[in-house]
Amino acid sequence: MKTPVIAGLLLALALARPSLAQTVPPPDPASADSAQAAPDAPAPDAAAPAPDAAPAPEAAPAPAPAFSEAVTAALGPLEEGKARVVFFRPSKFVGAAIGFIVREQTAELGKLRSGWYFVINAEPGAHTYTVHSEATDNTTMELEAGETYFVTGSISMGFLVGHPHLAVTDLPAFEAVLPKLERAKPLS
């Protein structure tokens, strides 16, 4: 009686195992050729630069992504020498009655309710943002001056109350929910 059960389990494991295997893409022939060439050797089709030729100009840094008019209006100006962090929480029915405060150490930065967002300008460097109820969630980010970062808030099931969470995200995620967001009032 146990033999069919064991055989069935072994068959299920055998069938499931290939789907769990990690697929590795085939090597790119172009990268294989360049890997075999000596690192200091010039490419075979590269012409030697003229001895009196001017040095090549340095590449300009990539331009910052342009924001749409709606995003620019929603974020406001970025202070000189600062980084901007946008905290937002998409509007959802689940956990809609629960709001939470985003903190950095003991400073309360803003409150996130369902369908709210707020923006801070921060000094460049490492920052750890915290939200908590009966559980705590921390998000640490390395901020650079002149850059804009997006952090989404959410609620998951807890024992007595919902557990707030923060996750780093991107501009398209913010743009997708912006029409349904309301700017949070300052805490102070």
Question: Would you write up a description of this structure?
Answer:
It is a single chain. The chain has 188 residues and is of the alpha/beta class. It has a domain at 78-181: Carboxypeptidase-like, regulatory domain (Immunoglobulin-like, Sandwich), CATH 2.60.40. It has helices at residues 2-20, 29-36, 69-75, 171-177, and strands at residues 83-89, 100-104, 107-112, 116-122, 125-132, 136-143, 148-156, 163-169, 182-183. It has a 5-stranded mixed sheet with strand order 8-7-1-4-9. Mean pLDDT is 75; it is low at 5-26, 31-39, 41-50 and 53-63.
Rough outline: globular
Q: How many strands?
A: 9
* Top CATH class of the domain at 78-181: Mainly Beta
List low-confidence stretches.
5-26, 31-39, 41-50, 53-63
Main sheet attributes: strand count, strand direction, barrel closure: 5 strands, mixed
CATH architectural designation of the domain at 78-181: Sandwich
Structural class: alpha/beta
What distance lies between the first and last C-alpha atoms, to the nearest angstrom? 71 Å
CATH H level of the domain at 78-181: which superfamily? Carboxypeptidase-like, regulatory domain
Based on CA atoms alone, the radius of gyration comes out at 26 Å
Helix/strand order, N-terminal first = HHHEEEEEEEEHE
Helix content: 10-25%
- Identify the strand order in the major beta sheet: 8-7-1-4-9
**Proportion of β residues?**
25-35%
Rounded average pLDDT: 75
| CATH topology category name of the domain at 78-181 | Immunoglobulin-like
Please give the count of helices.
Answer: 4
